[in-house]
From TrEMBL:
InterPro entries per UniProt: N_methyl_site
UniProt-recorded name of the protein: Verru_Chthon cassette protein B
Entry keyword annotation includes Membrane: yes
Origin species: Chthoniobacter flavus Ellin428
Transmembrane segments: 12-38
UniProt keywords, alphabetically: Membrane, Transmembrane, Transmembrane helix
UniProt lineage: Bacteria, Pseudomonadati, Verrucomicrobiota, Spartobacteria, Chthoniobacterales
Amino acid sequence: MKQGNDRHSGFSLVEVALALGIAVFALVAIIGLIPVGLNSNQASSEQTVAAGLAAGLVADLRTTPVVVPAAEENSPRYQVPLPLSGSVTHSLFLKEDGSVAGGIDANADPSLDPRYRVTLFITAPTDTTQKTATTVRILITWPAMADPKGAVAPAKYSGSYEVITALNRN
């Protein structure tokens, strides 16, 4: 700002232009970060929901009763069959609230509005005489309709969450 003896004091045109240029540069940078923040927030929300669904699936699998004599049993909530021995893969489509959108190993039905696809890789001990844990790898991917066929492993998705657990089925 010029200071002098004359009556007209204020900012010069160069000072105003420079201040506006700096303000515009800062605003453009801030506005450019908004989509990054929104995408990060969306991904975080999806991960949080998927983690909750995975915890529910693990709890459901752990509460599956062990029957004597040994037989294949289904989990109580999601009806996931747990094999006595060997490896199997199952698919399940879930809504955002965790409710099932279709049957086990069925293709996704768009009218049921599935949000998540759950693929379970279950490996039971091959030697049933030894006390070995059954391992379960749970892969949750979204959106579910990216890979709507239940019989194949997911290949196209925008996000995923994975957890591995061991079940004592002895």
